[in-house]
Amino acid sequence: MTIASTAGGFRLGPLSIDPKAGEARGPGGTQQLDPKVMGVLVVLAEKPGEVVLRSDLLDRLWPNVVVTDEVLSRCIYELRRQLSQAAGDDRLKDAIETLPKRGYRLKAAVTPDVPTPLMPPVRKRGRYGMVAAAVAALVAVLGAWWYLQPGRETSTPPKAPHSIAVLPFVDMSQAKDQAYLADGISEEILNRLAQSRDVRVIARTSSFALRDPALDVAEIAHRLQVSHVLEGSVRKSGDTVRITAQLIAASDSSHVWSATYDRDFSDLFAVQDEIAGAVASALAASLAADARALRPRPSPEAYEKFLQGEFFYYRRGAGDIPRAMGYYEAAVSLDPNFARAWAALSGAYSMMTTQSAPTDPSFEAKQGQAALKAVEIEPDLAFAHARLAMYYDQIGDSEKSATHRAIARKLDPNDPYVLVHEIERAIDRGDMAMAVEIQRGIVARDPLSGVNRSNLAVLLLADGRFSEALAEFRAVQEIRPAGDSEISNEIAHVLILLRRFDEARAEAAKVQEGEPRDQVLALLYAATAREREADEALARLVGAEDEIFDTVRIAEIYAYRGMADRAFAALMSLKQDLARKHGADSGHVWYLQHEARLSPFLKALHADSRWGSFLASSG
Q1: What is the CA radius of gyration of the chain?
Q2: Domains 162-294 and 300-412 share a fold
């Protein structure tokens, strides 16, 4: 097929492809493709059955731009996923063949005729337009990774020649009771490798999500888009530990490096450093000097308790947070100078403030004390300052929170808690594009984290990039258990903004009954001129109003219906009430303003002079 025919629309097996609308329509529904992802498909469809070189794709789609192969690989991954979703089955699972080190081949049948669309096309994009959206998507993919690198000084994104996923090591002990140790060793190696600028390291959440022994290295590498995988095993007997590790190339599943270590448990830190160093050498990468090596090592007994606490803290099963708290407390009892354990304990206390019923007020005080202790012991530990900043956030001391977040940012600009604060700062100054850019970098390192992808979708919504937000929420649906009402709620909102009302109605039926569904229905009925039903749903929501969250949702309905006076009245009334209860500059007032800034439904209020008054500090 010619460039002109594919650009105008074509059929791909059971799918109708509309490049102009950016859509793939089929039995499984409509998928909105990112402009670059659609561009890859169009180029492949020009030569069905033929090999298209990677270099040709890069030259065609990213002319005069420095782009890593990872960007193209990510586009291929998204293309495969979305085509399969649009088909509603596995017919197109293998439609795109990868030829290692060469390129790709489209194996599905391509025909030039465009059938009647299965659904009405999405309305024209808002204030950005297709060109701006394409540029924004490219900048997000390239810029996020570059932004996260310490010491960036040039405008050209550096290339990371390798990427790696460190899988959770296997517990080989006879009693199978050392999973905490296996996980802890894996995470320490992961964290050490993450200090290198030469290797992109997938975060723990995503790497550890792929524990399934049935998954082979090629499948894991494909899901995480990495060039190498590190796996291993741990066996502890008394005071002796045996660690086996092997580095595998994803391209052909060959072993690049492997080694076995038999050491005393007290030498565990040194072994972890040795493995990280050996892996880095095998990848021709350099490791930055590890400041932790200069710090006092905790006692082996305290470190083992700490690892047990980490295991339960990250597992998050029923009762796991109290268990984690107990192990952290045991760790600091055994070694009162173990700063990381104090900082982790602060996080467990923070979780307990929300899990206790009724909330035990002592946990908040303990949270602050533990974070302060960690900072006192190790003033150069970014994690400790980040935990302390979080505590000050919770008690409404924004000045001290900002001070400690700044310190944490200087010590470790890649710390996830630091990055979250950077995103919040971008939101507060109205720079949603920068917030999206940073969050994309987090997702690139942690692609299987439902929380991170949800956060990215929320930021894309706030930036007016509805189709991209929908794609992210759909990705979250794949990660989270089936029937997640919260994600269905978010998807219904996006579909309303996209004016795809039939789909929104179907999604609303999956939303939890009560306030969440009433809010969606109030918007949906208003959008489809069913004012009586919209009023009824709004009345139910107002009757169940629950401070910040529901007030913002009610204001969204008013704003969407053009009732600006009522929207501002709801927001300002709650702001004043929160200021009286908690203080004019409390975290409660900030959170209300923060939620309002993120709402795409409240954008209609931004041009009103009252919007500035609402966002202004109350103090």
Answers
A1: 26
A2: no
Whether the bond between 63 and the residue before it is cis, its omega within 30 degrees of 0, is no
CB 40 within 8 A of CB 100: no
* Coil vs helix vs strand at 162: strand
Residue owning tokens 């990848």:
283
CA distance 393 to 428: 15
**Continuous H helices in 95-196:** 129-147, 179-193
The domain locations on the chain are 3-123, 162-294, 300-412
Contact 203, 443 (CB under 8 A): no
Name which of 598, 599, 602 is nearest 562 in CA terms. 602
Instruction: Answer yes or no: are the C-beta atoms of 548 and 595 closer than 8 Å.
Output: yes
Quickly tell me which residue has 């795409």 as its tokens: 600
Name the nearest CA neighbour of 208 among 258, 255, 247, 170.
170
Architecture of domain 300-412: Alpha Horseshoe (1.25)
pLDDT in tens, 79-138: 887 888 888 777 787 788 887 667 888 988 888 643 333 322 222 222 222 222 222 332
- Residue-wise pLDDT tens digits, 377-400: 999 898 899 899 888 877 878 789
Strand partners, 245: 232, 259
Please work out, in degrees rounded to the nearest 5, the angle formed at the alpha carbon of residue 60 by the alpha carbons of 59 and 65: 50
Residue 97 CA: distances (Å) to CA of 91, 103, 109, 194, 388: 14, 9, 13, 31, 50
The per-residue pLDDT of the chain, averaged, comes to: 80
Q: Give the three-state DSSP class for 175.
A: coil
Instruction: Give tens-digit pLDDT for 415-459.
Output: 766 787 788 878 888 889 999 998 988 888 888 888 888 899 999
- Interior CA angle at 88 toward 84 and 94, to 5°? 30
Q: Which two tokens stand for residue 579?
A: 């200021």
How many C-beta atoms surround the C-beta of residue 316 within 10 A?
Answer: 10
- Classify domain 162-294 by CATH number: 3.40.50.10070
Specify the amino acid at residue 47: K
N- to C-terminal Cα separation, the chain: 65
